[in-house]
Design a protein that fits this description.
This protein is an alpha/beta fold. It has a single domain (about 15-210, about 240), classed as Rossmann fold (3-Layer(aba) Sandwich), CATH 3.40.50.10320. About 40% of the residues lie in helices and about 20% in strands. It has helices at about 25-40, 65-80, 100-110, 135-150, 160, 190-200, 205, 210-225, and strands at about 15-20, 45-50, 85-90, 115-120, 175, 185, 235-240. The protein has a 7-stranded mixed sheet with strand order 3-2-1-4-5-7-6, sandwiched between helices. Helix 3 crosses helix 4. The longest helix is centred in the middle third of the chain and has 17 residues, at about 135-150. It is globular and about 50 Å long. InterPro entries: GlcNAc_PI_deacetylase-related, LmbE-like_dom_sf. This is N-acetylglucosaminyl deacetylase, LmbE family.
């Protein structure tokens, strides 16, 4: 008889890999959570699949946008204690669920060897359609396929082992953001300033919105209320998937 899967996330892990589609995705949905983890001594690495070259709200020349957005994400990462930010360079808005994408995410998993992976939900969120950008869902599904079975299977993408010396690695937990099945809130009230600082780094994406901080704070307050946290608290919420 196999042992039952855990019902709650691990209290502490050594390494986390966050795999998101665009610069700023991790900060809107998870920067408070990341700040909490790094403050507790967890090493966090970002893997951003695109450079966000289709984003922005002004006349910035398109050829400049990838450089700007990479720099913004690196600055935002630093505000929450993350220094290792990796970009895969896929085209923004044109992601498809391909074997190449699965292999490239599997490569980073094997390099980082995280116990926990944070990514976007592959399910469409009908109550909040803005959360379900096609790139978000594609990255979520590709990451789940990389977690299981690709990264843990030494015979999947054998070139990763034969040519690059990357041994198979099993991820224990996956945290899915913007999920209609969210079941785990994390109280991030005490790191609100760091989350907002991270968001403000994304100048090309947020400078047009003077109500950004009020919107984000209200959103997290609603999340906290939905999960029964005390009045005045703020939360980010995830669907936690156990893989072992």
């Amino acid at each position: 008889m196999t042992a039952p899967l855990p019902r709650t996330p691990a209290e502490h892990v050594e390494r986390v890999l966050c795999v998101l589609a665009h610069p700023d995705d991790v900060d809107f949905g998870s920067a408070g959570t990341v700040a909490t983890w790094t403050a507790a001594g967890t090493e966090v690495v970002y893997c951003i699949v695109t450079d966000g070259d289709a984003g922005g709200f002004d006349e910035t020349p398109r050829e400049q946008m990838p450089v700007l957005r990479r720099a913004e994400q690196q600055a935002a990462a630093a505000t929450v204690g993350v220094s290792d930010v990796r970009f895969l360079g896929y085209p923004d808005g044109r992601l498809e669920l391909t074997l190449d994408l699965r292999r490239d995410i599997s490569r980073v998993i094997r390099q980082v060897r995280p116990q926990r992976v944070l990514t976007s939900s592959p399910e469409r969120f009908w109550d909040r359609i803005g959360a379900s950008h096609p790139d978000h869902m594609t990255v979520g599904e590709a990451t789940l396929r990389a977690v299981y079975p690709d990264a843990r299977n030494p015979f999947a993408f054998p070139e990763l082992l034969a040519d690059e010396g990357l041994d198979a690695w099993t991820v224990s937990e996956v945290w899915l953001g913007a999920s209609p099945r969210a079941d785990h809130p994390l109280d991030v009230t005490d790191v609100l300033d760091r989350k907002l600082a991270a968001l403000r780094c994304h100048v090309t994406q947020v400078s047009h919105n003077p109500d950004l901080e009020q919107f984000v704070t209200a959103w997290m307050g609603q999340t906290a209320t939905r999960f029964g946290l005390p009045e005045g608290r703020l939360a980010e919420a995830f669907h936690v998937v156990h893989t072992m």
